[in-house]
Amino acid sequence: GEVPAVPEYRLSAASARHNLADLLAGQGKTKEARAAYEEALKLREGLLKENPTSDEYRLALATTCNNLGGLVALGETAHARKLFTRGIELLTPLPPDDPNAKHVLKSCHA
Q: Which residues contact 75 (CB under 8 A, 6 or more apart)?
C-alpha cells in the first residue's frame, strides 16, 4: 500500500520491508524476498535523496544494497556487483569508527 510522506513512517515502512525480505530469504523464497528488498531500497533511496547528510539513512540504504546484492549474487553477478559497490560508496562518508558501518562494509563482497 501507499506509505505516508512523513519520513519517520517511510523509514519504518522500509525497515519492515527489509526485515520481511530477510525472513523470506531465510526461507528460500527468493522472488518474494527480492520484491521486499526492492521496495525497501526504493523507500530508502528516497529518504537519502531528501536527506543526503543523514548517516542513519545512508547506513540503512547500504545495508539493503548489501542484502539484495547477496540475494541476487548467484544469478545476476553484474547487478549484485553494482549493489555491493553502491553499499560501499554509501558507507565511505561515515565516520571510520562507526561500528554499524564497519559491520556492513565487512559483509560487502565487491
A: none
Measure CA of the first residue to CA of the last residue in the chain; give whole Å: 33
Helix axes 30-50, 7-26, angle to 10 degrees: 160
Burial letters for 70-88: b for 16+ Cβ neighbours within 10 Å, e otherwise?
A: bbbeeeeeeebeebbebbb
Sign of CA dihedral 91, 16, 39, 68: positive
Does pLDDT of 105 surpass 60?
no
Give 51's pLDDT tier (boundaries 50, 70, 90): very high
Answer yes or no: are the C-beta atoms of 57 and 8 closer than 8 Å.
no
Please give the model's pTM, rounded to 2 decimal places: 0.76
Residue 102 has pLDDT above 70, yes or no: no
| CA-based torsion, 25, 1, 87, 11: positive or negative | negative
Contacts with 27 (C-beta within 8 Å, 6 or more apart), sequence order: none
Question: Which of 35-44, 52-61, 85-94 shows the lowest mean pLDDT across its residues?
Answer: 85-94
